Amino acid sequence: MKRLIKQLLLFISFPIALLVIIFIFLNYTYKNQIENYKFDAKINKIVVGSSNTHTAINDKFLNNTKNISQNSECFMYSFFKLQTLLKNNHQIDTVFLGVNYFNFSAYCDEYIFVPAVTSRYFFILPNKIQFYLLKNTFNLYQLIKTCLIKGVSNLKNTSDKFTYLYESEDLSTKVPLSDKTIEKTIKKQYCENGKLYDYSNSNIYYFMKIKELCKNNNITLILLSTPLHSKYKALVPLKFIYLYNFLTKDFKKNLIEFDGLKLNDNDFLPDGDHLSASGAKTASEYLNELLKVK
């Protein structure tokens, strides 16, 4: 019996050891990769954030700007991505950060632990954060699996497709925008079991960390509150409007809310808080003209 147990332990220990070695290799490779990553020398402005800026800001219509926003990206991932990229890209003098009401809802916190999201950034994160994610993930097996898949795929990818910088996702749909689709989004983002979500302590904390990071690096931080459909905006709970106003009050001239932009229903996706391709073109061109005046 003891011999059987010993053989079983030896059998199990080999794949575990192999897995650890692969993780250590990928960890070293990608930390080194992002630390040495360089944007084109002409790029002095970057856009970072979640799906709102990912869909609303098309950097093809902006001068010397690169959009590295990703769907479901929490401020924690934005912070560590920025912190490392800024070390080797001293030409960056402006960071645009997507900030909207829903970013401060605890609804966002669950995306910290979604394997499909976590795995994009896992190997560029500090070891302490990696252990935290492994310990608190909803599905350890799925997280390890997706980390390995995306880790290996990054070895084959060119720099414009590194998962921590860019991962495309088509949010377009044939479902038309309506009161019903907007109300469904509001309930999902701000309510749970009929009650309002708490605030996202993580996003509030890392929002302040990004603010501090830019200040310490003499970088201008501009907040982009991307366009919201009027019916969506009318339904946002006051609790989150008050917090948004409080956290953004110090920015004044460095808060862009696209107030002068006129958009049609076709310029929005059904949820009312993401722009379609036509809306993104209009918003991006508007932003580019606005920046020329600044």
What do you see in this structure?
There is one protein chain. By secondary structure, the protein is α/β, with parallel strands linked by helices. A hairpin with a 2-residue loop joins strand 4 (191-192) and strand 5. It contains eleven helices and seven strands. Helix 4 packs across helix 6. Helices cover 50% and strands 8% of the residues.
Features of this protein?
294 residues; alpha/beta; Rossmann fold; 5-stranded parallel beta sheet; two-stranded antiparallel ribbon; 11 helices; 7 strands
Helices and strands in order:
Elements: H1 2-35, E1 45-48, H2 51-56, E2 65-67, H3 75-85, E3 94-98, H4 115-121, H5 127-136, H6 140-156, H7 179-190, E4 191-192, E5 195-196, H8 201-216, E6 220-224, H9 230-235, H10 238-248, E7 255-256, H11 277-293
Parallel strand pairs: 1-2, 1-3, 3-6, 6-7
Antiparallel strand pairs: 4-5
Distance between the termini: 77 Å
CATH level 4 superfamily:
SGNH hydrolase
C-alpha-based Rg, rounded:
21 Å
* Record field, number of beta strands: 7
In spatial order, strands of the major sheet run: 2-1-3-6-7
State which percent range the strand residues make up. Answer: 5-15%
Task: Tell me the domain tally.
Answer: 1
CATH architecture: 3-Layer(aba) Sandwich
The largest sheet is: 5 strands, parallel
Shape: globular
Number of helices: 11
Order of helices and strands: HEHEHEHHHHEEHEHHEH
Could you estimate the helical fraction of the residues in percent? 40-55%
| Unreliable runs | 4-11
CATH class: Alpha Beta
Structural class: alpha/beta
Q: Could you report the average pLDDT, rounded to the nearest whole number?
A: 89
Could you name the CATH topology? Rossmann fold
